């Protein structure tokens, strides 16, 4: 609940801030601003982690402990699928889209195979055997696809179709997520009390 509340707060602030920055300075400053914002965050994380690590016994970590094959397959799969969809939407050629889509699906299937046998997998697939985790993950995927597609297409409609400014559109989109920071902790508390299934379908 608290994690979703923080995410919701970001979704409330980000659209308006993005619109204002784009209107005032241009879209390139969105990336520059994000890069500069990570500097104090990285310093704060380094200080916090150094204090925490000083109280724990040091443990040697080798590169072989990381799931490098799984990481590579996941990147290839996701990037190939995204590029295939982009080429298809841009009319760059059906053959390229099919080829990239096939590579992406093959990489994702290989990723699942590798993760079931990795010592330190990126995603512990056995967790999805837990009913609550499977249900919550399925819900997150469906809601993410629906809301993501809507929030991606809506600004183009309002800006290109209706001629609204980016700052005004960003401000209007704040109201789409304004309830999340409040409702998320409440949903988490209700799920702990009554179960996630009753909260989702109730």
How many helices in DSSP terms?
Answer: 8
Mean pLDDT: 80
Largest sheet: none
Alpha-carbon Rg, integer: 21 Å
Could you give the topology of this structure?
Elements: H1 2-25, H2 28-54, H3 68-90, H4 94-115, H5 131-161, H6 166-177, H7 180-194, H8 196-201
Helix pairs in contact: 1-6, 1-7, 3-4, 5-6
Can you describe this structure in just a few lines?
The chain has 202 residues and is an all-alpha fold. The protein has helices at 2-25, 28-54, 68-90, 94-115, 131-161, 166-177, 180-194, 196-201. Helix 1 packs antiparallel against helix 7, helix 3 packs antiparallel against helix 4 (94-115) and helix 5 runs antiparallel to helix 6.
Explain how this protein is built.
With 202 residues, the protein is mostly helical. Helix 3 runs antiparallel to helix 4. The chain is globular, with a radius of gyration of 21 Å. The two termini are 17 Å apart.
């Amino acid at each position: 609940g608290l994690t979703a509340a923080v995410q919701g707060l970001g979704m409330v602030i980000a659209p308006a801030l993005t619109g204002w920055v784009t209107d005032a300075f241009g879209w390139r400053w969105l990336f520059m601003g994000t890069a500069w914002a990570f500097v104090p965050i990285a310093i704060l994380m380094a200080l916090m982690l150094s204090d925490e690590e000083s109280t724990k016994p040091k443990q040697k970590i080798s590169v072989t402990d990381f799931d490098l094959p799984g990481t590579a397959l996941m990147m290839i799969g996701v990037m190939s699928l995204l590029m295939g969809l982009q080429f298809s939407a841009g009319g760059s050629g059906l053959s390229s889209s099919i080829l990239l889509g096939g590579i992406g699906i093959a990489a994702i299937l290989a990723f699942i195979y590798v993760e079931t046998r990795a010592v330190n997998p990126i995603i512990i697939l056995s967790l999805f055997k837990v009913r609550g985790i499977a249900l919550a993950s399925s819900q997150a995927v469906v809601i993410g696809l629906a809301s993501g597609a809507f929030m991606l297409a809506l600004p183009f409609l309002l800006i290109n179709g209706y001629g609204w400014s980016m700052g005004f559109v960003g401000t209007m989109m704040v109201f789409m997520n304004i309830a999340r920071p409040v409702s998320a902790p409440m949903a988490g508390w209700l799920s702990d009390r009554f179960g996630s299934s009753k909260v989702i379908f109730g």
